Amino acid sequence: MSSPAVVRVELSGAFSLRQGRLERLIRLLAPLFELEEPAVIRIELDRLVAVSPAALALLTGSIKYVAEHELIADGSLVTPPRSPPVANYLKRMNMIRVLLDDDDLDDSIARNPAVGFRPCEHFSGEHDYAAVAAGLTKALTERCETDEIARASIRVCLDEIAENVVNHAATPLGGFAAAQGWKASGEFEIGIVDLGVGIRASLTQNPRYADVTDDANAITTALQPRVTATPERNGGIGLFITKMLLRANGGALLVRSGYGAVTSDEAGEHATLENARMPGTLVAIRARSDRPLNINAVYEQLEREHPRNSDAHDYDPD
Fold first, then answer.
1. Residue-wise over 78-115: b if at least 16 C-beta within 10 A, else e?
2. Is the separation of the CB atoms in 29 and 60 below 8 Å?
3. Which residue, 111, 120, 185, 315, is most buried by CB atoms nearer than 10 A?
4. Residue 190, domain member (yes or no)
5. CATH number, domain at 227?
6. CB-based contacts of 36: which residues, under 8 Å, 6+ apart?
7. Which domain does 167 fall in, by range?
8. Exposed/middle/buried for 194, CB within 10 Å: 0-12, 13-18, 19+?
């Protein structure tokens, strides 16, 4: 009997949306998703410098993925960061607790009340996705100025994303989410990740979008108003409104699925096809906490780009 293969994943440096390094993380983790037989998996975090919420959710979900698929052979390990602050941050953000499914784990770290952040959470069913979305929304409003309608719109968006993980990602593993704000830089990030079938496979279940031919086009389509894989249910507005809120706020939205990546920010919307496949979907929301998230700015932009007498999109802000 042959010895299992050895898969070494070395994660050094920083991984964040702001630095544009989430794509690098996806490339480095790609060998995990290509495994068909158990392997000795060595995730080396020795030289990890920083990891943002979206990157943390992806990393945690990836390790959980190979564990749930029984792809981890004896001798596998995760080496902790050399930096004590980085190691402590991973503990505070519940990476180990989520991986071990143990809320009572004593990981010897002082924990502050979760204000302006939410540690990594794993959700997998109807009973917990709404609670996760509510917690992420509350964390954002603890750091960012929002009016009531903008706050409700973000909650709708996060509910839709989390619900899609449960109902459309077609994975029993569920999803992973985390949030963090940084006062010094005036930024706030939410990351939600699943490792399911991806946006294109889900969207093309709706005959209206059956001709969507690549992942980037599928994401671009999904970011338009009233686009949903399940037209018999209300939905398809949350991501669109959040995209517009973030654009007016000076923030950014990244959606990565399959080989597709779409970034929306003040400069507009940019779609690319990447070399590495991202199983499932990653949604990263980056808001400016030193600027308001104001729905009126969105309505003004909508009137400029999609006038009410235009039939380009089925959207009515009233």
1. bebbeeeebeebbbbbbbbbbbeeeeeeeeeeeeeeee
2. no
3. 120
4. yes
5. 3.30.565.10
6. none
7. 6-101+114-305
8. buried
